[in-house]
Amino acid sequence: MTEVMVRGRQQPRELIENRVSFAGPSSELSIYDTYLPAERVGLSAGELLYCGMISGRKIMHAHGDYQAEFLPQESFVMAPGEKVEIDFPDARMETPTSCLTIEIARERVETICTRLNSAAPLQREFEDWRYRPESLIHAQHSRATQELLQRLVTTFSENSSDRDFLVDLGVSELVVRMLREQMRTFLLKMCENNPEVNGLGAAVHHIQVHLDQPLDTEQLSRIACMSRSRFYSEFKQHLGCTPAEFQQHLRMQAARDRLARGETVTRVCFDLGYRHLSHFSRRFHQQFGVSPKQYRESRDRGTRR
């Protein structure tokens, strides 16, 4: 979502958090542009608020001492009643900091959770599908989520006879993707604390602690005490991806964290099981939109600010 064109953004009424909004069924999309540096700007959520970064950089202050950068192609979800404060260190008239929010009625989220629990129930050790307000969601967008958000911006802002129907479908998909992201984080934490929670949990934990090794699906199936086909089915139902996609996701998150701490690209590449720097760099660029070297240099500049 490198560029989002919406009517009403060209002539801002405010220089800090200028807002353009579009109402939909049980939802509302807003786009915020900030043109001047600012600190501790408040944002509160009456309902669940899905925030997606478009351009620039924010510093989010939430949950007591929680503080994190909010960058393009990332999402941040605020629970109903939650409040955050935001810094805009890089906002300028010529390069505004921009993000979108989609406010979603909590009843809508609960309805979708009920349908998921009926259509795709989880193993009993992993509880039910539900939104967990205590579990922070701050995640990198997948390509599919990025495309969905771009499509939602277009759908919310157009004037067609089937607009509300398409908005409803898109918001439902967004909620499911959000719940899957939160469930993945929840399962990872559970498997980290209790690797033997069940067979699937043991397999997930094995992937977590052996990121440098090639994926062996036969071994993972044995660890999970399942046939190969059942293991794939259970894995995708609970984590929303294949074991290979999951390993790739964890590797990329680990690579980003280690590069942000200043480790060399070469060391991170080989420590995470990649045999060629070109392959690692290509994967990283596909995930984050910049090369590992560019990302590391950008973190170095951010540290020196």
Distance between the termini: 26 Å
Order of helices and strands: EEEEEEEEEHEHHHHHHHHH
**Strand-pairing-aware structural class:** alpha+beta
Radius of gyration: 20 Å
Oligomer: single chain
Low-pLDDT windows of residues: none
Tell me the major beta sheet: 6 strands, antiparallel
Description:
With 305 residues, the chain is an alpha+beta fold. 46% of the residues lie in helices and 21% in strands. The strands form 2 sheets. Strands 1-2-9-4-7-10 form a 6-stranded antiparallel β-sheet. The protein has a 4-stranded antiparallel β-sheet with strand order 3-8-5-6, with no helix packed on it. A hairpin with a 3-residue loop joins strand 5 and strand 6. Helix 3 (163-193) packs across helix 4 (199-209). It is globular.
Protein topology:
Elements: E1 18-24, E2 27-34, E3 38-44, E4 48-55, E5 58-62, E6 66-70, E7 74-78, E8 83-88, E9 97-104, H1 106-119, E10 137-140, H2 143-157, H3 163-193, H4 199-209, H5 217-224, H6 228-239, H7 243-260, H8 265-271, H9 277-288, H10 292-304
Please sum up the structure shown.
The chain has 305 residues and is α+β, with helices and mostly antiparallel strands. The chain is 46% helix and 21% strand.
List its salient traits:
305 residues; 4-stranded antiparallel sheet; 46% helix; 6-stranded antiparallel sheet; 10 helices; globular; alpha+beta
